[in-house]
Write a structure and sequence with these properties.
- There is one protein chain.
- By secondary structure, this protein is α/β, with parallel strands linked by helices.
- Helices cover 51% and strands 14% of the residues.
- Helix 4 packs across helix 5 (76-88).
- The longest helix is centred in the N-terminal third of the chain and has 31 residues, at 20-50.
- It is globular, with a radius of gyration of 23 Å.
- Bound molecules: S-adenosylmethionine.
Length: 372
C-alpha cells in the first residue's frame, strides 16, 4: 500500500530532518522511543538480576561472554546478546575486544544487595505491573482500581525489592537513632507496629535489632503477608507477628510505643481514617514514623522540579492510585499525593500535635516524625 502525501512528509522528516518542524518531529520521536528503550532495558535489568548476571560480573574485570556464561551456567549465545544490550544501554563497559565489565559504581546499584543504592530488585515487579493494563483499561471507565494483590506474588516481590535495601542498611542504624527517645524504648522492650508492612522487611529488621520488643505488621495483601511470614521463618525471628488488617485491624487501645508506615498511606482508600486509628493505637508518649514519597505540593512544582515525576505518575496508575481507588469512595491520593503540607494537615486532623521532617538519605522519600 502506498503512502499518502502527509505520510511521505513524516517519513522524509524522520529520515533527514532539515526544517525546524522536521527537527522538532525527530526530537519528539526520539523522546517516545527513549521511553520504549527504557521499558525494554528495564526488562533486561530484571533478567540480569534474577539470572545472577550482574553478580557474575561484579569485581571480575572484563569478561568475554563465554566466561560469563560459564560462571552463571547459562547459554553463551543468550548471554552475549544480553551483554551487548547492556553495554549499548551504558550499564556495562565494553573493552572493544569482546570483554564486558560492571563498574564498581554499577555493582553498588545492580549487583551488591547489601548496598543502600541497590536497585535491581525493584525491577522484578514490572512484568506483573504491566500485566494489569487490561484490567486498568476498565478502571479508567469505572473509576474503581485494583488492590495490590491484583499484581500477584511478583508484584509484592517487586515492591519489596525496591524498598528493602533502604530498610536493611539505613532504617535501624541511621533513621531510628534520630527519632526522639525511640531507640531507648525499643531497647528496653516496647511494642512496635508497621502498617502497610508489605513483605515485612522493615518490621523484621527492627525485630532483629530490638529482641526485647515485640513488633506487629499489618497489611491487606495476602501475597505480601505470605512473603513476610516466609522471610520471618527463614530468619528465625520470634518477636514479630503479621496480621491481615481486614481480619485483625490495628488495636486502638494506646498500646504501641512506636508505629511506622512506609510508602503506604498514599495507597490506602481511607488514609485519614488510618491516621486516626494510629493515633488511638499509640501511647500518649509514642512516636509515629511516616515515610512517603517526597512529592511537591503542586503538579506544576512536580513537573518542573521532580526528575522522577513521569516514573511516579506511571507507578501511580499501575499501582498506587489504583490501590487508593480500589473501593468506592477511595481517597485517590496516588504516588505523589501526600506532600508534606498535606501530611501535616491530615495528621493534625487525626489528633497529632508534633510533626518533624527528616531526610534519611533516601532519594525518593521524605520522613515525618509525628507525635500526639
Ligand atoms: C507500596 S507498598 C509498601 C509496602 C511496605 N511498607 C514497603 O515499604 O515495602 C503499600 C502497601 O500498603 C498496603 N495497604 C494498602 N491499603 C492498606 C490498608 N488499608 N491497610 C494495610 N495495608 C494496606 C498494600 O497492600 C501494600 O502492601
Amino acid at each position: 500500500m502506498g503512502l499518502d502525501a502527509q505520510q511521505r512528509d513524516v517519513v522524509s522528516a524522520v529520515a533527514a530532518p532539515k526544517t525546524d518542524f522536521e527537527a522538532e518531529l525527530g526530537c519528539f520521536v526520539k523522546r517516545v522511543f527513549d521511553n520504549l528503550s527504557g521499558f525494554v532495558v528495564s526488562g533486561m535489568i530484571a533478567l540480569g538480576h534474577e539470572l545472577g548476571l550482574y553478580r557474575a560480573l561484579d569485581g571480575a574485570g572484563p569478561l568475554p561472554s563465554e566466561a560469563v556464561a560459564a560462571r552463571t551456567g547459562l547459554h553463551e549465545r543468550w548471554v552475549r546478546e544480553w551483554l551487548r544490550g547492556q553495554a549499548a544501554a551504558g550499564l556495562l563497559d565494553y573493552d572493544g575486544a569482546g570483554g564486558f565489565s560492571l563498574s564498581p559504581v554499577g555493582a553498588l546499584v545492580l549487583a551488591n544487595q547489601q548496598s543502600p543504592a541497590f536497585s535491581a530488585g525493584g525491577f522484578v515487579g514490572l512484568p506483573a505491573q504491566l500485566a494489569v493494563l487490561d484490567l486498568l483499561r476498565e478502571s479508567f471507565r469505572t473509576g474503581i482500581g485494583l488492590p495490590y494483590d491484583a499484581l500477584g506474588c511478583d508484584g509484592a516481590r517487586g515492591v519489596d525489592g525496591g524498598f528493602a535495601p533502604w530498610f536493611r542498611t539505613m532504617l535501624v542504624p541511621i533513621a531510628l537513632p534520630q527519632l526522639d527517645g525511640v531507640v531507648a524504648k525499643l531497647e528496653a522492650g516496647g511494642q512496635g507496629a508497621d502498617i502497610g508492612c508489605g513483605a515485612g522487611t522493615a518490621l523484621l529488621e527492627m525485630a532483629k535489632a530490638f529482641p526485647r520488643s515485640v513488633f506487629h505488621g499489618y497489611d491487606i495483601s495476602q501475597h505480601a503477608l505470605t512473603l513476610a511470614r516466609d522471610a520471618q521463618r527463614a530468619a528465625g525471628v520470634t518477636n514479630a507477628h503479621f496480621h491481615d488488617a481486614r481480619q485483625e485491624p490495628l488495636p486502638e487501645d494506646g498500646r504501641f510505643d512506636f508505629v511506622t508506615a512506609f510508602d503506604c498511606l498514599h495507597d490506602m482508600t481511607q488514609p485519614q481514617a488510618m491516621m486516626a486509628s494510629v493515633r488511638r493505637a499509640l501511647r500518649a508518649d509514642g512516636t509515629w514514623l511516616i515515610g512517603d514519597v517526597n512529592a511537591k505540593p503542586t503538579f506544576e512544582e512536580n513537573l518542573a522540579q521532580n526528575p522522577m515525576a513521569a516514573l511516579m505518575y506511571g507507578y501511580s496508575v499501575l499501582s498506587c492510585l489504583s490501590s487508593s481507588l480500589s473501593e468506592p469512595g477511595g481517597a485517590g491520593l496516588g504516588t505523589l499525593g501526600l506532600p508534606e503540607p498535606l501530611a501535616r494537615e491530615m495528621t493534625a486532623r487525626a489528633g497529632f500535635t508534633r510533626f518533624t521532617r527528616h531526610d534519611f538519605g533516601n532519594p525518593v522519600n521524605a520522613y515525618y516524625e509525628v507525635r500526639p
